[in-house]
Each structure stands twice: as C-alpha cells, then as structure tokens.
Design brief:
Blueprint (H helix, E strand, L loop, with lengths): L1 E6 L13 H18 L4 H7 L1 E12 L8 E12 L4 E9 L5 E13 L4 E2 L4 H8 L3 E8 L17
Parallel strand pairs: 3-7
Antiparallel strand pairs: 1-3, 2-5, 3-4, 4-5, 5-6
C-alpha cells in the first residue's frame, strides 16, 4: 500500500477541534496526486497527454477522532478499474500514530480528455502501471454502469 504522512495543522481542524471533514478529502486528494507522481504522472506529463483525473463521488467513513498534535498516514489503493482504465475507484485509509484505522474514503472517478472535455481511456503505459499498482483485497473490474449505481440525477431549478 502507498502511504503519505500529514502533520495536523491548526487550520485542518473544525469548531470541535478535531480533524475537519474537508481536510480528510484534501488529504485523500494529496495522497492520490503523490501516488500519480510516484508513477511518473506529473502535472506536466498529464498536460502533455491532455488528460486529467476527475472525481464523480467521495464517501467518508469515520471510526475514531483525530485531534491536534497527531500525525496521520493516508493510504492509496486501487479498489476497481474498468478494462480500458476510463473509470476507477480508489480507497484511502487514514491511520493515526498508533496505526489505528481512524477513517476511510472511497472515491470513484474517471479520466477526462482536456481538449474534448469528455471521458477517455488511459494510454496503455499508464493503464499497465495502474494494473500492477497497489490494490485492495476486494479489487474488481467495473464498467460505466458502475458510475451510475447510486441512481443520482440532477434536479434543475425551474423558473
């Protein structure tokens, strides 16, 4: 499993003086990007390919409070991916100083062509990198239908 460490800062806390939910999401995002960097997928590299990752949804599950002066390690594991790499699910677990799993973030996303602004598959080199990366025990292959499993649709304002 890939791990990134974070020191809890004052601005990472909420009014209850524990780690704010927005901070959990920020740490997950930073961990994902650190993993991509480790795979050689820098901003410049992704820019040259004209692709970028997008988030469809994220869910947080809290198990234990995280307080000031703690250090958090956040994991990255691939939970699911479509055959062509267009769709993916990542799992992030948060561990305190004692190694206790204090929270989990499950997210689903896809890859977007930055020119057409449409979903796109991954180039084979990157796809192979993900296929050989850190995976959860429950890793599975997904399809575009999995991105709609929550059955959520937009509800526009009417005039």
């Amino acid at each position: 499993m890939f791990l990134k460490e974070f020191e809890i800062r004052w601005n990472d806390l909420d009014a209850n003086r524990h780690l704010a939910n927005v901070t959990y999401l920020s740490y997950a995002s930073e961990t994902r990007m650190a993993f991509l960097q480790k795979m050689g997928m820098s901003h410049a590299y992704l820019n040259n390919l004209e692709i970028g990752p997008i988030v469809f949804n994220e869910q947080l599950f809290y198990f234990k409070e995280v307080l000031p002066d703690d250090t958090i390690r956040v994991s990255f594991e691939l939970a699911a991916m479509s055959k062509d790499g267009t769709f993916f699910e990542f799992e992030h677990n948060y561990f305190n100083n004692k190694g206790e799993n204090v929270a989990r973030c499950e997210m689903m996303g896809g890859w977007m062509n930055l020119k057409t602004r449409k979903l796109t598959n991954l180039p084979s080199k990157i796809l192979k990198g993900f296929q050989s990366s850190y995976k959860t025990e429950a890793y599975r292959e997904i399809t575009s239908k999995d991105s709609r499993r929550w059955n959520k649709n937009p509800k526009n304002l009417t005039k």
